[in-house]
Amino acid sequence: MAKLPRYSLSQNEKSKKWELKAEGSSQVVKSFKTKAAATKGGVLEKAVGGRGSVRIRKRNGKIQEERTYPRSADPRGRG
């Protein structure tokens, strides 16, 4: 199976917006007013095109959780 693209959702200190970026890049894929707006429903899944791994970070930069889309591609998933 091919590697999934990796993304990171973190807060921009200056703008206070939550930004989704491809890891290893400073290019913002999508920005959100709040963390809740970014993580509700299928918003992140749509933002990564339904395929990718998103590390959701706390305000302090530490990883809070990681979500994989599609869920079946999660290497830690049930099998």
**Per DSSP, what share of the residues sits in E-state strands of 2 or more residues?**
35-45%
**Average of per-residue pLDDT values:** 90
Runs in which pLDDT lies below 50 for 5 or more consecutive residues are none
Q: Which strand order spans the largest sheet, edge to edge or round the barrel?
A: 3-2-1-4-5
Strand and helix order: EEEHHEE
Provide the helix percentage.
10-25%
Based on CA atoms alone, the radius of gyration comes out at 12 Å
* Helix vs. strand class: mainly beta
SS elements, strand count: 5
Main sheet specs: 5 strands, mixed
- What's the tally of helices? 2
Whole-Å distance between the termini?
A: 15 Å
Shape: globular
Defining traits:
13% helix; globular; 5-stranded mixed sheet; 5 strands; mainly beta; 79 residues; 37% strand
Written overview of the protein:
- This protein has helices at 35-39, 43-47, and strands at 6-11, 18-22, 28-32, 52-57, 63-69.
- It has 79 residues and is mainly β.
- Strand 4 (52-57) and strand 5 (63-69) form a beta hairpin.
- The two termini are 15 Å apart.
